[in-house]
Amino acid sequence: MSTIMQDAANGVVTEQFKTIAKKEGVTERFLMDGIASGRIVAPSNPNHDPIPSAIGEGMGIKVNVNLGTSRDMVCMDDELKKLKVALDYGADAVMDLSTGGDIDAIRATILKECPVMTGSVPIYQIGLTAARKNAVVEMTEDDMFNGIERHAKDGMDFMTVHCGITMENVRWLKESGRIMDVVSRGGSFLTAWILHNEEENPLYKNFDYLLELAKKYEFTLSLGDGFRPGCIDDASDAAQISELRTLGHLVKRSREAGVQAMVEGPGHMPLDQIEGNMMLEKQLCYNAPFYVLGPLVTDIAPGYDHIVGAIGGSIAAKAGADFLCYLTPAEHLSLPDVDDVKEGLIASKIAAHVGDMMRGKGHAADTKMAIARKNLDWETMFDVCIDPVKAKAYRERGCTKKEDGCSMCGDVCAIKIVNQYLK
User: Fold this and answer.
1) Domains delineated in the chain
2) Which of 107, 351, 372, 391 has its CA 20 to 30 A from that of 283?
């Protein structure tokens, strides 16, 4: 059976391509050329078969929601409630990052209940299994690849794989003088493994075998940024850039093998460095789709990191990021609850919309909102807005539905006054 990239390259117009092209407002040819070249990815494992969607050049900016248990908080019902909120408020993708409870069962349940693109980070489960037996650094190469294959068989559409952490890049890390060293959990597992075993990262050394698995099961590689900066002071340092260069090399090898790949990026980063970093990724990684966490533009706002990430995300999206990973108010503090998921997703959706507007998409909604406000057409305002539930609640606070204005201005509403006299 041919792969998604092969179908695109051979000019085979599948139903998946037709659906995506219509949804994105592009021609089938544009979409297929992008997928064939690797500038666009359409993650879709046949064992899951999600709603067709695409990430990359010319596509709307997508938003991912992270779900999953921790060692201290294991409740499948809670994760399903989070999933429902994520879907209700328009998440384009979901990742299961579970580290507590029956991880296999949790993953299977989320895949069954989630109709959108779904991803995971297999090294979490692999490392934790090794740690329970002895230590994370006792993972074997077989453990790593067997774990990845298990996630692939279950139906994961994309997987974060930390292939860019190499012995050479670990040396750069040691010499970098970083404050935070490694903040990626998967990155820390593999960094420790390399230092303990004094051997090359198996995911890098045996990358061709990883490509075979990706091609066999049709999952997209999300090339993880294990050395992403974990604080403002560590941004754009040698460790981060050396890993990015390695990922660019792996993007090229993925395309040669007919495997879809995107690249993950920072992380914490000052506002004035974001645009340059987006341009650098596109240059070093051959215009591969770029998947960023935030970026977070300051380190001093625990409890508000969803806002911090949305600020960085809007700049990143304007400058070339294609896929935003949300942050919640609980970031750096605790496992998020249902309300945190909603707040984090909405913040990232706003950032994605702002980025889309700067890239020529989505402006029509803002025009529709402006016309509705001029006409004091509340129902249309609620229909257009990103969170109609909250908007309606504020509107009804101190104001009856029959009134034209709101309780902020009352009879001295600027719009009502000018509308009256202009008529």
Assistant:
1) 1-37 (no CATH), 45-358 (3.20.20.540), 364-422 (no CATH)
2) 351
Contact by Cβ (8 Å): 37, 28? no
- Torsion region of 74: left, alpha or beta (phi above 0 gives left; psi -120 to 50 gives alpha): beta
**Cβ-contact 100, 67 below 8 angstroms:** no
Average pLDDT per 10 consecutive residues for the chain, totaling 423 residues: 93 98 98 98 98 98 97 95 98 97 97 98 96 92 98 98 98 94 96 97 98 98 97 97 97 97 96 97 98 97 98 97 98 97 98 95 92 93 95 82 71 82 78
Query: For the chain, how are helix, strand and coil distributed in percent, rounded to 5?
Result: 55, 10, 35
Looking at this protein, which amino acid is placed at residue 239? A
- Alpha helices, H only, 12-53: 15-24, 28-37
Q: Is 110 exposed, middle or buried (0-12, 13-18, 19+ CB in 10 A)?
A: buried
H or E segment to which residue 324 belongs: strand 323-325
What's the full length of the chain, in residues? 423
Q: What is the DSSP string of 115-161?
A: -SEEEE-HHHHHHHHHHHHT-GGG--HHHHHHHHHHHHHHT-SEEEE
* pTM greater than the 0.70 cutoff: yes
Nearest to 217 by CA among 188, 162, 259: 259
